[in-house]
Amino acid sequence: MLALQADPNIEAVSAPISFQFSSATLQSFSIEQSVPLGGGTNYGWGGLNLGRAWNYAGGHSLIGVIDTGLQTNHPELRSFTPSGSFTLGNFLPVYSLNIGAWPDSIDTNVDERAPSVVQYPNPYCPMDGNGQAPIDFVGHGTHVSGLLAANAYDGTTVAGVCKNCGVAMYRIVYGVCVVGYGVLADFNSDAGAAAFTFLGDTGAQVISNSYGFNPWVVDCCTNYGKNPFCEALNYIQQREIIVVAASGNNRNWLDFPASDPRVVAAGGFDETLQLWDEDRDPPPAHLDDCPMPGFSDQCGSNRTFSLLQPKQEVVAAARQVYGAIYTGFNWNMDFGCGDSFGPGGTSDGYGNCTGTSMSAPQIAGVLGLLRSINSLVGAGDPENALIFGVRDVLSSTTYQAQAGISWGFDLGYGRPDVEAAAKRMLGKVAGTASRNRVTPLFSVYGSGAKDYAYTTSPHTAAALLINGVSNYVTTGTAVQGYPAFPPDPYILPSDMPRANTFIMTTEYKTRASYPDLVPLYLLDRERNYPIGCNPSVPPCNTNNRDYLLATGMGEVEALHAAGYRYRGIEGYVYQRCTPEPSCIPPGAEKLWRKCKTADDDCAVFLESQRTTFESLGYTATVPAGFPQHIGYAYPNVDTDGDGLIDGMEYVIGTSHLHADSDGDGSPDATEFPLAAVSNSDPCNGPLAGRCPADTLFDNGFQ
Question: What burial class does residue 197 get, using C-beta atoms within 10 Å of its C-beta: 0-12 exposed, 13-18 middle, 19+ buried?
C-alpha cells in the first residue's frame, strides 16, 4: 500500500499540492508475501473460494488501478506479444494514462520504469537532458495488477482474481532523488484525485486504490470537503462506480480513502485467515521486530476500533502474497517485496509482497467478477438497507455472514466466499443457481464519428454519450427493466438505454447440446477518413472512429495489426455451428459484423436486422478473410410481455409463453429482474412444471 506517513530514514519532501490534513512525504507502497501458486495453491485464493467461483464466472469488467504503473511487457499482463500475437492478457493501454509527473503533464507510458521528471535533483541520480530519469525501485503496481487480473491462460498458475477483467492503469507518481537510495517514486496527490475523474469518464466499473493517508479525523470529507479526493469521490459517486481502497498497514484506524463510507475498505488476513498482525509484544509498546526493531509500520492490517469510526468492510490476503512483479527489480527490500523474495529465481518476474495494498486489488477483482455477471446492478451500500447492490451481495455472502456472524471490528463483514457471491448474483431458478444470464448489448450511433458502437457496460455507454465530439446517441429498441444509465449532466433524457441484441454474461452454456460460448472482444480505431485526406479540406472526417466486435483470437490479431486498439471482453455469444438452423439455440439468431466502406464503420446486428443494415451500405468484410457471421445472440423480443426478453427466459429456464411461469402470482421479471439481484425463484410455484429449467452441473454434464 502507498502509505503516506513519514519514513524516519528519509528526508521529507512536499507533493505538488499537499492534502489539507497532512503533507505528503516520500513513502513506500506497502505489500505482501505468499504461498507460491506454481504447483500448489495460494492461501488467499483458497481463502476466497475462487476456484469454485470460477466454475460460475471468470469475470470481464473494466477496473481502474491507481498506482505506480506496471511492467507493460510482463507476460502475465500484456495483451499482445511484440510480434502481435494475442495473449488474452488484461492490461489495456487504450484506457491507461501516466498523469503523475510534476509539473503537470499527461502521456500514455505507464511502465513503472518510464522516465519521470525528478524532483530535488542530485548528481547521485543521473538524469537525461530533460531532467528525467527512470525510477529505480519498482514493482508495486505490477504486483497489484497481477493479483487483480494476471493472465489465466498463459500456461502458468499465477492467475488474477478476475480472469478477464481489463486493467486501466493510471500512473500517479513522479521521481524523487534520495541520496543513498536512488530515484524513488513519490505520490502525486493531485494526480490521484484526477485519476478518479478520468476513470469515471472513460467507463471504469471498479477502481482499486492501494494507497492511503491517515487524516487523524473520523470523517475526512466532512471536515475537508474541498479536498481534491473528496470532490472527485463526489463526482463519480452518481456513476455507480465501486471504489476499493487498502485499509492500511500500521495497526491503526482506517486510512483515507478507505475510511470514506462510499469506499470499500479492504483489510487483510494472514495464512491463518485471521486479521494480519505481526505484533508480538503487549501494549503499549508495539515496538517489536515487525519488520525491524523499533519500527511499527507495515506490521498489520488497520481495522475499526469503535463504532464511531469508519467500518472495515471485507478482508483478503495481506501477508506474503505471491504474484507478478517487475522482472529483475525490487520495490522495497526492508519489507520483502520484489523479484528477490519468495520462490523462484531473482529475475523471473514473480515475487512476494506484504500489506493491504495486496488486499485491495483482490477485493476489486472480486467485485469486478460480480459486476460482470450483471453489470446493470448498482454499487450498493451495506450500511444503507434502502440501497441494495453489488457491495451488499459481497458483504452478505462472506463466510462470517453465512455462519450468522455480524459485522466485526477486525474483519468487517468478513472474508468473501466468492462462489456464494457469484451464485447470489446469478440468481436461483428451480432451486439451483442459474448457470448464466443475458444482458443488453447497448447500441449508440455517433454522427460525428459516423460510427455504431456497442457495449454491455452502462459505464462505457455513459462514457460514449458524454463524448461531445462524436455526438453519440442511443439507437435501437428500449431496454425493459433498465430505464436509465447512471446520471450525468451531459446524458439527455432521450438517451435511454437501447439494445437490439442481448448476449450472455458468463462463459458457461446452459445446455450441453448448445454451441460453446466464445468471448465478444471490443476494439476501436481512430483515423482521418478518407485515408490520407487533408484535415482542413472537406469532406475529411477528423472525428472518424470505428468500434467493432470480434469473436476469435485470429480476428483480434488481424484487427490489431490494422490499427485497432483492444478494449477487453464485453460478454459471450454462441459460436458458429453446423448444421444450421437445427444447431442454433432456441430463440437465438445469427449475429453479423459487416462494414460500410464509405463511412469507415462496422456494425454488428442480428439476422432480423440484416436487410436494414445492408440497405444502409453495411456489406463489406473487416477484417478481410474472416467470416461476417460471428456467432448467435438473442433479439430484444418479449413474447409473453412479462418484462423479460425471450432469450433470458430460454437461458434461465422460465417459460417465454407465460408471464408468470410458476403461477405464484409474481411475474417472472419481478422474481428475476434484469437490472437487480433476484430475491425469488421464478420456478418454485404451483405451476412450476411450465418451467423447462435444466440443471447443468459443474462438470458440464446434465
Answer: middle
Sheet holding 263-269, edge to edge: 97-98, 166-171, 62-67, 206-209, 242-246, 263-269, 314-317
Chain CA centroid to CA 481, Å: 24
Backbone angles phi, psi at 363, to 5 degrees: -65, -40
472 — phi, psi (to 5°)? -75, 140
- Split at pLDDT 50, 70, 90, the class of 1 is low
Domains recognised in the chain with CATH numbers: 2-278+298-399 (3.40.50.200), 438-635 (no CATH)
Report the chain's mean pLDDT, rounded to a whole number: 89
DSSP states of 71-98 as a string? Answer: -TT-TTT-SB-TT--B----B-GGG-EE
DSSP structure class, residue 608: G
Least confident among 179-193, 427-441, 463-477, 603-617: 179-193
Catalytic residue among 140, 143, 459, 656: 140
Does residue 25 register a pLDDT over 60? no
Select which of 60, 67, 434, 658 is catalytic. 67
Arithmetic mean of pLDDT, 274-280: 86
Q: Which of 226, 270, 272 is nearest to 249 (CA)?
A: 270
Instruction: Name every residue whose Cβ is closer than 8 Å to that of residue 167 and which is 6 or more positions away in sequence.
Output: 63, 65, 70, 77, 90, 91, 92, 96, 145, 148, 149
Q: Which three-class secondary structure state does DSSP give residue 583? A: coil
What cell does 431 get?
A: 432451486
Question: Catalytic site residue 67?
Answer: yes
The radius of gyration computed from the CA coordinates of the chain, to the nearest angstrom, equals: 25
User: What is the rounded (10 degree) CA torsion for 326, 329, 331, 334?
Assistant: 140
Q: Of the segments 26-30, 105-109, 258-262, which one has the largest average pLDDT value?
A: 258-262
Number of Cβ within 10 Å of residue 428's Cβ equals 20
Asked if 260 is an active-site residue, the reply is: no
What is the C-alpha separation between 249 and 33, in angstroms, rounded?
Answer: 14
Query: Grid cell 425469488 — which residue?
Result: 680
Element holding 154 (H helix, E strand): none
Does the annotation mark 297 as catalytic? no
Question: Average of pLDDT values for 218-233?
Answer: 86
Given the residues 247, 357, 359, 457, select the one marked as catalytic.
Answer: 357
As a whole number of angstroms, the distance between CA 229 and CA 425 comes to: 31
- Across residues 413-419, what is the average pLDDT? 98
Contact 399, 414 (CB under 8 A): yes
